[in-house]
Amino acid sequence: MTIARLTARRVGRVPRRLLLLAAAAACRTVSLPAVVQGTGVPHVDPPPTGRAHIIGVVADSATGYPVVGAAVYFTRDSVLGTGPARPRTDMPRATTDRSGGFALRDVAPGEYTLAFSDLDHFPLREVVIVRADQVRSVVLRPRRRDTP
């Protein structure tokens, strides 16, 4: 049944404005929050000569909402490992802010394994290639532990 027929048929019992609001809510599409579209990424100054910055956002894979208070760090472990990775002590670490953003500043050029850990999500690792004088952006999309 179309909205026009429903409105015409029930206009005597239910206010038309309420029907239009209900129809609009039923037809609304679910979109990902703006944090995934890059607005949650923190602003950083240009890196020192010969170094780089890695900025990014951690957003839930199912909902797209930011993951707050998660640890983002470099590891010596491979990408194929299971469980939380061991963080490197010679590299910067970060904790995600309230918009899921993080910044790892002053990183030497090279190939690294970037790891994520949080109590509510499965651990996640990703290989990142860093070039000199670059600000590299990354989006991490971990899966919640209670999702199948």
Automatic annotation (TrEMBL):
Organism listed in the record: Gemmatirosa kalamazoonensis
InterPro entries hit by this protein: Carb-bd-like_fold
Keyword field contains Acetylation: no
Gene3D superfamilies per the UniProt record, alphabetical: Carboxypeptidase-like, regulatory domain (2.60.40.1120)
GO molecular function, one term: carbohydrate binding
Protein name (record): Carboxypeptidase regulatory-like domain-containing protein
Lineage: Bacteria, Pseudomonadati, Gemmatimonadota, Gemmatimonadia, Gemmatimonadales
Signal peptide: 1-36
Keywords noted in UniProt: Signal
